């Protein structure tokens, strides 16, 4: 499920916002919006779109979360059931696939936290949505260079739904742990991972929460109303339409729905928004993050990092689709494009309340990596490269990770630590304000 969040406006018929033409890694952002011609050509049959239209015809408009579940997880036509969608040949590429430095520095942070709590002798590593297994492989390769923690790692727990990706992960990670007394297990959900009283847990979720199903709501004079997916009445009539080729569109529920009465009340921040505001809320994200807090907050405790694009606030217009590294209309080709939305890190923090853990940050990916030693590690890799071409590739890949106008600024890193944090934990440190008083 290596799921990886800019939202496009869901108003009217066009769910795409114009955005800067910069490639930020897993998602590519384009300046263009889907073109709207006076006549839409006859659409190519999309079996999943037909299933969704038939469902709406039978039951009425569906929540956006259900549409995302159809598109990403349908057992036959779902996006993540169709093989390897990562890398330059797929629809997106992630930070671990760009440079080994990313996973190495995540591992270094894990190492510092493990040492800070007196180096527990039993350690397990948990990852949500491991993709090709590249991040876990880099983390393990780095940690195995330190004998103390290398001998303490007892098990690896991967949450992955795709059987294809499980096999890809198994092939890569099994080589790394060959000859070591380390168990490797897969789960379909975070709730399947058992709590442990005698094990320190290291946790990572990289571009996972951005692919969690969301629900969108609009605040009206009559209260919150849900933005839903509906059939386009113009579809199939041979008439002009500005909606997608799939015959689906967005609509606003005329009356409250069960979700619109519950989810907008799940954070006190939402009540302060003005009329006309929209919010994207993922109830699965809240539940999963809370479970993570419970796993890290019990027994020997633990620590973790969540890396995703988004920010420390709510979003209302970030829902978008990616295909072949380009942004496309979310209704253009259901099941054949990745769907994503920005991550509300404040919501992640709120979900940890009462779990015995503390949230750290978030800070930008660039700050996280630079603080943990990206530059000296980069110099060492460049010095070891055997050709000028290879040196330049290494340099460009590292720069891509920390580019403040790209991945370095748009991806955020949130840390999690068991217990109540009374002092700031590096590198999640609040910048000190410079004194305006001139020193003699």
TrEMBL record:
Gene3D superfamilies reported for this sequence: 3.40.50.12710
Enzyme Commission numbers on file: 2.1.1.320
A single Gene Ontology CC term: mitochondrion
Record GO biological process: methylation; mitochondrial respiratory chain complex I assembly
Pfam families: Methyltransf_28
Family, per entry: Belongs to the NDUFAF7 family.
Reaction catalysed by this enzyme: L-arginyl-[protein] + 2 S-adenosyl-L-methionine = N(omega),N(omega)'-dimethyl-L-arginyl-[protein] + 2 S-adenosyl-L-homocysteine + 2 H(+)
Entry protein name: Protein arginine methyltransferase NDUFAF7
GO molecular function, one term: protein-arginine omega-N symmetric methyltransferase activity
Enzymatic class: transferase
The keyword Methyltransferase is annotated on this UniProt entry: yes
Presence of keyword Mitochondrion: yes
Cell compartments where the protein resides: Mitochondrion
Keywords carried by this UniProt record: Methyltransferase, Mitochondrion, Transferase
Provenance organism: Kwoniella dejecticola CBS 10117
The protein's role, per its UniProt record: Arginine methyltransferase involved in the assembly or stability of mitochondrial NADH:ubiquinone oxidoreductase complex (complex I).
Matches recorded under InterPro entries: NDUFAF7 (IPR003788), NDUFAF7_sf (IPR038375), SAM-dependent_MTases_sf (IPR029063)
